[in-house]
Amino acid sequence: MKSSYEVAIIGSGFGGLGMAIRLKQAGVHDLTVLEKAGDLGGTWRDNTYPGAACDIPSHLYSFSFEPKTDWARRYATQPEILDYLRHCARKYGVLPHIRFGTEVTEARFDSDAGIWRISTTGGELTARVLISACGQLNRPSLPDIPGRDAFAGISFHSARWDHSAELDGKRVAVVGTGASAIQFVPELAGRVERLYLFQRSAPYVIDKTDRAYTRLGRGLLKAVPGWYPLNRATLYALFEARALGFVKYPALMAPVVRRFQKNLHAHVLDPALREALTPDYPMGCKRILISDDYYPALTRPHVELVTEPIERVTAQGVRTRDGTERRVDTIVYGTGFRTGDFLAPMKVVGPDGRELNETWRDGASAHLGITVSGFPNLFLLYGPYTNLGHNSIIYMLESQIRYVLGCLQAMRRTGLRWIDVRPEVQEAFEARMRRRMRETVWEQGCHSWYMTEDGKVVNNWPGFTFTYRNATRRPDPRHFRARR
Which domain holds residue 44? Predict the structure, then answer.
């Protein structure tokens, strides 16, 4: 293995693989992809829980340069998405560039040499450019519940599913009702003796309308010129229109609220249960979920929705604040991810000795979600202000990849040793984000994973995805300081 590279990429999910492919296509072959796990795939490698699937239609969930017309279902499942990523890595020759089992622990920028000195579990290396493609959904978040470590049974987070755990005929507690839980709860409900679902706040769940694609339909998409691009463009436009309700006019969410109410009333006849499953915050303030089988699962006689707050985990089960202890064999935590850390736990140090996570202690910030002032030649994919509530993140990632590639090509063309976004440019971008965020539904009275502890939304893009693509179409040289 070499010890010095032009480009080092951290992570081999959609962002890291897409970046590596586009670099190779542009003639940049001196690169490495640092992957802490033993396989590629990012979140689609890690999340193997029963029922794991995408909540964006399949035909929007692939790279534009590698369209897939033969998805098995309207909403692709985890195994099929992972297979697609492996296919892309093989087809475009990325596999030889990946260092598996190599976790980055620290990266320090050497301004004299104009390189990043990177410490990993597999040794030391250097790179002129460092690209983080860690994503926002890679570090499981376990709740700070008293006694959690005292439980005598089996417990695990849904993103680290224990497939050796025997769940059939067992008593199981599920903590959390987020996007993962609504997928695996119906699967568990058909297997266990008793299921307790502990809900802190009710999610909005609308019907998924999932279905398998027929062989004929898949064949036509591939064979008829223009059909697949038209299908993809139509889906994109339909989902993109929802941005207005999220970022400017929350009242436009009314039709989706009615869709939620119709879904809830169709499946839950018990008025008390229906009330417990009705959110007390505006639709869209938290992530909207889709499922055709979540509500039916909660009406099964051996499934109990628990809304009383958890007081502590005991050796035998879970005790709520009213003193009731529910004894279980297994606890599954569907409690999401540590989405605000971005680059943690790795330590990233700029030329002046500043540590990035310390710089971000009041909330992450990056110009266009990609570059951070004071950290030259560092680029982020799926950084702050780039998550979506309405469309495919692959579209956003491809916008960022093109922007990063534009920066690297400009550096090569002009012989620059390093570039660093100007602080005033980043500050102006941050100010625009804060002004626009106040109009969005995400700051209308709920606490979500989009927010920092003090209630500032730093994860989401407050606009249309095509406006982000326009903003990242090409890097503006005036935005950067540079050194030859």
Answer: 4-139+338-483
